[in-house]
Design goal:
Elements lengths: L3 H10 L7 H22 L13 H10 L9 H16 L6 H24 L11 H5 L3
Helix pairs in contact: 1-5, 2-3, 2-4, 2-5, 3-4, 4-5
């Protein structure tokens, strides 16, 4: 599995405007799965292949939150990623497709940054998605 830095570079390299909508949505959702797979592996778990509400992402989140309740801070981020995926897949020719792809990009990037930060500092997420724990160590 790639590192989180490699995943971030791959997300950033995805040219949202030029990738067909369905392909872009699937790629961004896959990146979310990979990010949560990292979380689960870092905690000694084999990432599940099960689905929850039709999405592996939600099953991976559920698996990751079992050992760390503060990981629930990214639950809504996962659900928002699924929401934007559904918007793009349901209306791939919508006039707002570029904005929807961009929003999905930002949501998956947020998920990546949260998981990366939480792996660095386990207290991250105790106050929602606050990076307070990381900011306190910047002195």
């Amino acid at each position: 599995m790639s590192t989180l830095i490699d995943i971030e570079k791959a997300i950033d390299a995805l040219e949202l405007e030029y990738v067909p909508t369905e392909e872009c949505a699937a790629a961004l959702l896959d990146f979310g799965d990979i990010v949560l797979g990292h979380w689960n592996e870092a905690h000694g778990e084999v990432p599940t292949n099960e689905q929850r509400e039709g999405f592996r992402l939600l099953a991976l989140h559920r698996q990751g939150a079992k050992k760390d309740a503060s990981f629930n801070a990214c639950r809504e981020t996962c659900r928002e990623l699924v929401y934007h995926y559904n918007l793009l897949m349901g209306e791939p020719k919508n006039e707002d497709v570029v904005q929807r792809k961009t929003m999905m990009y930002f949501v998956v990037k947020h998920l990546l940054l949260f998981v990366g930060g939480k792996l660095e500092n386990e207290q991250l997420g105790d106050f929602c998605c606050s990076s307070r724990g990381l900011r306190q160590n910047m002195d």
